[in-house]
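ugh ok so i messed up the first submission bc i forgot one of the chains. this is the corrected input, ALL of the components this time, i swear. 254 residues overall. if the numbers dont match what u have on ur side tell me asap before i send this to the collaborators (the ones from the other lab, u know who)
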Amino acid sequence: MINAMVRPKKRLFLALILVSLLLAAMSTYGLWVVSFPGLANISAYLPVLLGWALAFFLLVLAVGIGGVILTIAGFPTLTMFQAPAWSAVNLLFPLAIRIGRLLDVDKERIERSFIEASNHLVKNRGIHVPPERLLILTPHCLQHESCPHKITHDVSNCKNCGRCQVGELLEIARRHGCHLAVVTGGTLARKVIKGLRPKAVLAIACERDLTSGIQDVFPLPVIGVLNERPFGPCCNTRIDVDKVDEAVREFVVK
Ligand code: SF4
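and heres the new structure output, hopefully the right one now
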């Protein structure tokens, strides 16, 4: 049986990332205050220079996070803000996870919220790619554990026997004319991306792998679809194929 997953709220991630920004600003100010006397002894200009550099750094972070929040709130965001927005998110995300842990918020919940926010940002960009430039990337654990076929080397070795959903994904990929790859981990995923050079990726994985994958391949746009684990992690996982089909249709050029 597949357990229905509660749709995560983007606001959890946004709240934690805002608190992270506040903490980063306070720590940066503390660093400046502590280093002030030592630097002033060397030169009167040094504390001022450091102050401006740190203020600029915080401003870029604040603009980035502000851009993410405005986009998610439905405001149009300039393309030039997308790179600082993602850099700010990548930088502050580990801090957000730590703050969440202190507040007893489950890490997977924060990751789901991050994926939801990231998907929203990608969809908001209205990206459409030719089908042959779209890659569906799925983990090896989707293949049934007893399947003897080597599908990580070539997914068309799948016989669509119905024991797992790899056959259904292959059908979706064939119908739309996009690529499908089954990978055993992040290293193989990066190798496939390097070889195929897609313009967009539809990634299927668990919270942890999707979160790190989305951040790893930036600026490549990724829509993340969470897998379901009725038999526990990394074993005979499942996916909502309708959701995958819908995401592919949204991505490919009509
Ligand atoms: S659908 Fe394909 S991958 Fe899955 S068990 Fe059957 S042959 Fe193996």
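quick check: The two ends are 35 Å apart (CA to CA). that seems consistent at least. The longest strand covers residues 134-139.
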